[in-house]
């Protein structure tokens, strides 16, 4: 009786899904995944592996990862130009999602200054405008910074932050 019930359960088990046909992710795709996770060493290893099969993709990615790794190793010492370059490299490596290491620099050079600028906007417009300009120096297309700058200018402040 028990054996019959077990056989009935096994026969009604859902089918095991099949994996899609074809190869898995390419070396460049795997490298980008490791980049997003913050493991630059593994990302560079995967790019190196893929140079023979994907020389165009992996060659450019290799260069970008090497430059990015240099800046990532000096996060505390980045100038505004270095941070801007790091963000550009991040976009070249992964156009849709920022990497884990980029988030630290993003917080330091974009998120915190924008928060301070919003806090100062009502009382210290000149200081707020300076912070917004700093954000725009690093990320010229930042929508929030551009909107805040527009608000500050429309509130009667000049573009240079004066009254």
Short synopsis of the structure:
The protein is 68% helix and 0% strand. It is mainly alpha-helical and 163 residues long.
Describe the structure.
The chain is mainly alpha-helical. The chain has helices at 2-11, 27-37, 40-50, 55-72, 80-93, 100-120, 125-138, 143-154. The protein has 2 domains: 26-73, no CATH class; 80-163, no CATH class. It has 8 helices and no strands.
Secondary structure blueprint with pairings:
Layout: H1 2-11, H2 27-37, H3 40-50, H4 55-72, H5 80-93, H6 100-120, H7 125-138, H8 143-154
Helix pairs in contact: 2-3, 3-4, 4-5, 5-6, 6-7, 7-8
Helix amount: 55-70%
Distance between the termini: 89 Å
Mean pLDDT: 85
Order of helices and strands: HHHHHHHH
Report the biggest beta sheet as strand number plus sense, adding barrel if it closes: none
Overall morphology: extended
Radius of gyration: 25 Å
Number of helices: 8
Number of domains: 2
Class from secondary-structure proportions: mainly alpha
Low-pLDDT residue spans: none
Tell how many strands the DSSP assignment holds: 0
Strand residue content: under 5%
Question: Which features would summarize this protein structure in a list?
Answer:
163 residues; 68% helix; mainly alpha
């Amino acid at each position: 009786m028990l054996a019959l019930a077990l056989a009935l359960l096994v026969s009604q088990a859902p089918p095991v899904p099949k994996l899609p046909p074809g190869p898995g992710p390419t070396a460049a795709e795997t490298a980008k995944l490791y980049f997003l996770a913050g493991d630059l060493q593994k990302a560079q290893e995967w790019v190196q592996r893929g140079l023979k099969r994907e020389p165009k993709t992996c060659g450019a990615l290799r260069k970008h990862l090497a430059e990015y790794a240099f800046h990532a190793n000096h996060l505390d010492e980045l100038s505004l130009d270095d941070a801007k370059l790091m963000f550009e490299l991040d976009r070249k490596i992964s156009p849709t999602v920022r990497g884990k290491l980029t988030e630290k620099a993003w917080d330091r050079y974009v998120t915190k200054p924008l928060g301070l600028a919003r806090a100062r906007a009502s009382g210290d417009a000149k200081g707020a405008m300076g912070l917004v300009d700093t954000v725009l120096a690093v990320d010229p297309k930042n929508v929030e910074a551009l909107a805040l700058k527009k608000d500050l200018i429309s509130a009667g402040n000049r573009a240079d932050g004066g009254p």
